[in-house]
């Protein structure tokens, strides 16, 4: 049960009501945002989930291979500027770094024609929930009890009985231990999207960032200090850029596109589309990634949403969370680049 509780803050922002797949009035962006505040408390000026973070800048060097399946200009051969944010799951901006806390990486890529691609990824192989309603119910079941500081085991067991897809996803996640640090993490988009190429052919795609220089990283010292994961990343980027390969995985007929708890077979065709390079990190401050809403529904021409309900639903709570923190006084970031 304690392992299950650790995934309460998996998502990069939460979900909201968009209509059609939820009962009218059952869920709203405000209710989801309130739920995060109920669990983690209110921390003015910070995201309601993935509150602890570090801004970053770099580039995406496209090798042109992605144009085989997508006409978006970001995949044409060349270099595109990137603004990013590394984060830890949860609504506590000063939480202590732990190796098993979910790690996030949000990216904004903007091409010379003014189009944007925003993506929010985490270091898990699958997502924990197939629907927004399931995610919300898991938040309720995962709330720490006042007397123990831990979730009620019976409440969580009841939730898992009602949601076997989450129990199956947890099993997959437990079999994929996290890397030692941010730089060596594989970050996965998890949800399926639809890519259309210049000829009009459309395929379902999931994407991942896989570390290129993992074997070249200096040994990570034993955990020390409240911010050791971020401190290690700051130190690494000061020594050299950190690079990931952008890998596009193409679905075949029958592969689930509406349920991110289910992995696609490892035999699926993949395309190495280029390299994401993070060359600098910055303390969160006005004008950098602190103020960016990494809404995964912001897509360039050639990319579209699939039948997965999660990205559509997330957009509402991203907006609500952003509106709240934008109007609040800003506290200093826990993670600082000296």
What does this structure look like?
- It is a single chain.
- With 338 residues, the chain is an alpha+beta fold.
- The protein has two domains: 1-29; 41-125 and 176-327, Catalase HpII,  Chain A, domain 1 (Beta Barrel), CATH 2.40.180.
- It contains seven helices and ten strands.
- A hairpin with a 5-residue loop joins strand 3 and strand 4 (116-122).
- The N and C termini lie far apart (39 Å).
- Keywords: Heme, Iron, Metal-binding, Oxidoreductase, Peroxidase.
- Heme binds at residue 318.
- One of its GO terms (molecular function) is heme binding.
List strands and helices in order, with pairings.
Blueprint: H1 2-5, H2 29-40, E1 52-62, E2 78-88, E3 103-110, E4 116-122, H3 132-142, H4 153-162, H5 164-174, E5 187-188, E6 193-196, E7 202-211, H6 228-239, E8 242-250, E9 270-282, E10 303-305, H7 309-326
Antiparallel strand pairs: 1-2, 1-9, 2-3, 3-4, 5-7, 6-7, 6-10, 7-8, 8-9
Number of helices: 7
**How many β-strand runs?**
10
CATH superfamily of the largest domain: Catalase core domain
Gap between N and C termini = 39 Å
For the record, the CATH architecture of the largest domain stands as Beta Barrel
GO biological process, one term: response to hydrogen peroxide
Function: Has an organic peroxide-dependent peroxidase activity.
Organism: Mycobacterium gordonae
Keywords: Heme, Iron, Metal-binding, Oxidoreductase, Peroxidase
